[in-house]
Request: fold
Amino acid sequence: MALKAGVRVFRLNGLRPAVRLLSTHTRPEVQNAQNSKVAEFPGARAPYISELKFVSETSYDPIPIYRVLDHNGEVIDSKEEPAIEKDTLVNMYKTMVQLSQMDKILYESQRQGRISFYMTNYGEEGIHVGSAAALSPSDLVFAQYREVGVLLYRGMTVTEIVNQCYGNCEDPGKGRQMPVHYGSKQHNFVTLSSPLATQMPQAVGAAYALKRVPNNDRCVICYFGDGAASEGDAHAAFNFAATLDCPIILMCRNNGYAISTPTREQYRGDGVASRGPALGILTARVDGTDPLAVYNAIRAARDHALRHNRPALIEAMSYRVGHHSTSDDSTAYRSLEEIQKWNNDENPIQKFKMYLERKGYWDAGSDEALQKEARDLVVKTMQQAEKKQLPPWKEMFEDVYHDMPPRIQKQVKELEDHLAVYGEHYALDTFKPE
Ligand SMILES: Cc1ncc(C[n+]2csc(CCOP(=O)(O)OP(=O)(O)O)c2C)c(N)n1
Reply:
């Protein structure tokens, strides 16, 4: 079955073609039957055929993977190179480097027992900055947990991020979440929750609410992994997004694994992207190791979402170079050679650096200085974060209810009384006084 390629060409700012989003498949049996009678059932409008034909995943060509850069950071087709200003490109690169240095140090910090948990983003930095740069800062983000580069790009400081991981008194989340479960109202980034895909129907609901705002100019982007895409919530979210006409970008990070489950065990068929056309969602698949491809796809998807109040699905193909989390040893289920191959051949940071060098925007000297500066910032911030006290213990009773109900007030009092007698047995000096 042949793909009907280039169904629509999007123009960014009316300037130039950006990326083709594939919205439909044309099946040969449909083509062959084009002259035959078309049935008009309430549930499907399609031609009748007189020979029974099943359609399987092998009936389709796979949805192609759009890229702008090759693995040496060279632009493949100059028409596809987005017109991004030098400062923005350099900022995108700096964010990727900062993210990767932060990952190295915070990962080590967990190994040394300084924080309880961490998740790295190696291999997916291009998805973060490519999408963040293409969005408006006011667009609302619903993320999974491996998207902190979006927050960094939006201006969340390394200090805020490190304070969250340490759960200290300056953690914007008041130490109530596991490390890496960030959130920021200021940066329009909804606080993460661990149960997979729960953010997806919520994101669609938020997009539905936005479209009801007069002259709305904000869309929602919802990030999720290939594993999360198997959850029931993901399917519900896709269908609601399509049928309720929601301005949302469904952004799948397909990094090949859901902890130890490889994608070959996660789904049959053509990945996550193939579900888009099936549900009537405009869809594109991109090389997630190429920030420019991600950028073009998100720009076009955003334009579509806001112009038509319709969802778009982007499947960004990448490889999870790091372990799933600090609780995982991925060499138990994949080879070192496989990891090294992806890290060497399709490294998003290297690729983007080579692109910037080709354009004369970057050089080895600047790179050495940036790597050191990025590293030093995290180390210094971490040392400061460690010295900060924990949030006042009484805060754990707050913020659920606007007015604290009597039964919670009773619990506060009980703990106060308990600490008045047995306080010496607790490290109360580690908590900030109220
Ligand atoms: C409902 C639910 N089931 C299981 C888990 C345990 N879990 C945490 S992360 C994860 C894998 C998710 O993989 P994917 O969505 O591909 O994202 P990735 O970690 O690869 O970025 C699993 C199974 C969970 N958090 N929530």
Remarks:
- The pocket of thiamine diphosphate is lined by residues 146, 194-196, 225-228, 253, 255, 257-259, 320, 324 (CB under 6 Å).
